[in-house]
Amino acid sequence: MTIWKAVLLGLVQGLCEFLPVSSSGHLILLQRMLGVESGAVFFTVMLHVATLVAVLIVYRRMVWQLLCHPFQKTVLYLILALVPTVLVALLFKFVPPFDAFYEAAEEGAYLGVCFLFTGCILAGSDLLRRPRSRQRGLHDMRAADALAIGSMQAVGVLPGVSRSGSTITGALFAGLDRKAAANFSFLLSIPSIVGGAVLEVPDALRGGAAQIDWLCVAVGMLVAGVTGYFAIRVMLRAIKRRGLWGFAVYTGLLGAAILVDQFFTHRFF
User: Does the record's keyword annotation contain Metal-binding (predicted)?
Assistant: First the structure.
């Protein structure tokens, strides 16, 4: 890997982690286009860690408040929302034949379908969300809301299915307002990224630690962290003003283009 590739991948990760377009799907696509293979899994995990720093900075006051008062409802609901994701992640990691399915997904085998799915749920989030008069804030959440959001996030472990898009959509379907949906989604990304790193880093290091270019990793992480910070700010403004229609159109068209390549042109897949 070269420095410019690390910069480009870091830029894509930082922008796409918090926009509802699937950062993991974009990284797989870009790695295919750039021919990046060795050390790619570890590099991808470290880019996710960099975006974790970005969300901690943006939500530093809220995170500190949650740490100081760990027995409040929001903390409980974050833990509850993690349960479906953890179960699905462990299933894909350790249980045949689901592990083989997930390995194929990480290679991009289902990327087109997953991007199309993301486009559909993003479009549905605006069409099917509750009227404003019936929407609730973060402090009015219920346990059932957390489980619904967590179940949507569990689907988001597949590359091409946006984690933030899935959780925001789940929150809107559950009846939260747009601000509460975005805030809960970004807070939920913190333990999700940590858990993903814990699962993936050991295998990635065993698979090719000697081939990792640590300078490229550092550069990519720096770029991902900075762009991730601004992407969160953009996303918070966008979801309040315009909804998710633009992202739905983009991911739908991208999914269709990838399917054409997977079945007909075979330029990258």
Answer: no
